[in-house]
Amino acid sequence: MADREAAKSVLRTQKIELPSWAFGNSGTRFKVFAQRGVPRDPFEKIADAARVHAHTGVAPTVALHIPWDQVDDFQVLGRAAKDAGITLGTVNANVFQDDDYMLGSVTNPNPAIRRKALDHLLACVDVMDQTGSRDLKLWFSDGTNYPGQDNIRARQDRLAEALDAVYRRLGDDQRLILEYKLFEPAFYTMDVPDWGTAFAHCLQLGDRAKVCVDTGHHAPGTNIEFIVAFLLRAGKLGAFDFNSRFYADDDLIVGAADPFQLFRILFEVVTAGALAEDSDIAFMLDQCHNIEPKIPGQIRSVTNVQEATAKALLVDTDALAVAQAAGDVLGANAVLMDAYNTDVRPLLAELREEQGLDPDPMGAYARSGYAERIVAERVGGTQAGWGA
Ligand code: PSV
Ligand code: MN
Ligand code: MN
């Protein structure tokens, strides 16, 4: 087994970004079950995100979704985050919730609608200038439902044109992160359906364009760790949207559906050296908590990522290399499984104590009285904006 102390020193520097929208009410298209005490505005979402960081110590940034988190002055929001002990992270654009986008946003056949969508993306870069965010994450719901509905190649041209305009607007320290999704809401073609399409567009754009792997956006059975390994090797992995799924884009708690898959993904990240303190990969969650309480849902998500990371760090890579070089198939597999089957909870508890945190973040949150306080103080919480 690899060195516990070495694993702890990497875990100490790990950072997981929280999505502001995880704290608001969410649901499916059938029903949103409103929870009491949910945030009424972006400031309260930030307060809740800061609470997750206070208990876990590894979630110091929160991602924004525009316009869900639109405020008059983003510098004021940034200061509120700082006062709460966190900072504002990735800006996620939203060109999927306007009637005009029924036939697409940046790939819409109507140039006026394309212009409107592009203007929103450029406005998101203005937001980044104010928040100091490094990354603009783009996900497009664009696509078609029926064969013949639109010209597939023309839509790629329109997409490339919009991405190019956004890329050229970025500052030197800013990046464009392109997210793909197999299907939904479009059911015949998506304009960015897979990592290959995202990768090809990012290659054409340049060094500061990278791919986001949302773990929920693949066909069942897809080998996501292979995609991760490929993108890492090409220097094109920009971000993760972590969540888990049983069927399609369920946005369930990361590591809940398939903790082994999460371990395999993080093993690729760890062995590529991409977890180092200077790593430029954004490890984000993209989740909704439809029926479970949201803040504990986020705490559990963070600890699930930590557990999978700890196991990945415990893989004895020397022994693995020896077994691989010798063609020892079962031996190599056993090295990996030994690490996966290790109970890393004591190691993480120890790490938290060393950091002055309660070793049990879920229990500490439950005992803190925060949940009762927000229920008493906040009446009429907002909908996250997703899945209504
Ligand atoms: C789309 O399914 C997606 O994963 C994108 O990242 C959106 O921005 C996000 O969900 C909203 O939750
Ligand atoms: Mn996502
Ligand atoms: Mn999604």
TrEMBL record:
The keyword Signal does not apply. It is an enzyme of class 5 (isomerase). Its EC number is 5.3.1.14. Keywords: Isomerase, Manganese, Metal-binding. The keyword Isomerase applies. SUPFAM superfamilies: Xylose isomerase-like. GO terms for molecular function: L-rhamnose isomerase activity. InterPro entries: L-rhamnose_isomerase, Rhamnose_iso-rel, Xyl_isomerase-like_sf. This is L-rhamnose isomerase. It comes from Streptacidiphilus alkalitolerans.
